[in-house]
Amino acid sequence: MIIKSAQDIGKIVKEARKKQNFTQVQLAQLSNVGTRFLSDLENGKPTCEIDKVIKVLANLGIKLEVTNG
Amino acid sequence: MIIKSAQDIGKIVKEARKKQNFTQVQLAQLSNVGTRFLSDLENGKPTCEIDKVIKVLANLGIKLEVTNG
DNA sequence: AGCAATTATTCCCGAACGGGAATAATAAGT
DNA sequence: ACTTATTATTCCCGTTCGGGAATAATTGCT
User: Chain B contact for A13, CB < 8 A?
Assistant: First the structure.
């Protein structure tokens, strides 16, 4: 899926987390972030810090890729 | 290219920007971010805010994609 | 080498991040 | 419906982001 906004990432995270039967608390601990952060992220907060986002994605087995035209 | 850290994104941005003959000032104005932000981003600052990163990538024509195993 | 252009770093500072915890709201299960 | 689990929202608060501008450092060009 192509990412155009923070909201897109939030959706992805939420879906993947549920599919893997993680609670926010579990995934947060796993990723070394707070539960507040994870909730914010899943709800599309546009100012989440990039490395934390990357860590969460990694812990869900989601690959992040860039393609240059 | 697969993104594993903020530094990866920084490299991508810097390379793409140079390839398109943009200065940091130009790209920053285009993306509605400060030049400081762009410099930080290219140097792999891990706390850059996600939506600003996305905007910069978009203005370079770089597509950001996630792939769920 | 020397000059101009670009980039990196520092400063000030308002605004907001994110952690933790408590509370409210929502979803889920019996 | 009721209870429990999960998630969202609010609060306090230390820390830091990011803009803008100035300065240092680096790069590029002739």
Answer: no
CB of B55 less than 8 A from some CB of A: no
How do residues B16-50 score in pLDDT, each as one tens digit?
Answer: 999 999 999 999 999 999 999 999 999 999 999 99
Let me know: does A50 contact B47? Beta carbons within 8 Å.
Answer: yes
Q: What phi and psi values does residue A59 have, to the nearest 5 degrees?
A: -70, -10
Distance measured from the CA of protein residue B26 to the C1' of nucleotide C11, in angstroms: 24
Predicted TM-score (pTM) of this structure: 0.96
- Return d(Cα A46, Cα A40) in angstroms, integer: 9
Q: What is the mean pLDDT of residues B43-59?
A: 98
